[in-house]
């Protein structure tokens, strides 16, 4: 998947209030991440709803899930987050050319 497609997928996944809240919580948690139950407790999300949102973030490449015993820990893929942020800011303030419609 190229950076443009990856960024579009990542931003689409973050375009939902609950997923954005989950992602921001995991960013705050740092590299150790949080267990599914801890995320649910912090955000008040039902387990099935949370599983759906975590799956979407995982499929977008923003969250990595690791099973430890009976628990599944979720952490942000900080490299993927950095690539997405870099994509958004790569051409900041470079200017744009004015496009004219010569056919009119």
From TrEMBL:
SMART domains for this protein: HTH_ARSR (SM00418)
Pfam families: HTH_20
Keyword entries, A-Z: DNA-binding, Transcription, Transcription regulation
SUPFAM superfamilies tied to this protein: Winged helix' DNA-binding domain (SSF46785)
Residues in HTH arsR-type domain copies: 1-96
Keyword Transcription belongs to the record: yes
GO molecular function, one term: DNA-binding transcription factor activity
Protein name as annotated: Helix-turn-helix transcriptional regulator
Taxonomy of the source species: Bacteria, Pseudomonadati, Pseudomonadota, Alphaproteobacteria, Rhodobacterales
């Amino acid at each position: 998947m190229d950076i443009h497609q990856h960024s579009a997928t990542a931003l689409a996944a973050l375009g939902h209030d609950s997923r954005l809240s989950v992602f921001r919580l995991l960013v705050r948690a740092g590299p150790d991440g949080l267990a599914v139950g801890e995320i649910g407790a912090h955000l008040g999300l039902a387990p099935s709803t949370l599983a759906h949102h975590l799956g979407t973030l995982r499929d977008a490449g923003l969250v990595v899930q690791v099973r430890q015993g009976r628990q599944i820990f979720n952490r942000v893929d900080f490299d993927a987050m950095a690539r997405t942020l870099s994509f958004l800011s790569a051409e900041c303030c470079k200017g744009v050319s004015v496009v004219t419609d010569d056919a009119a």
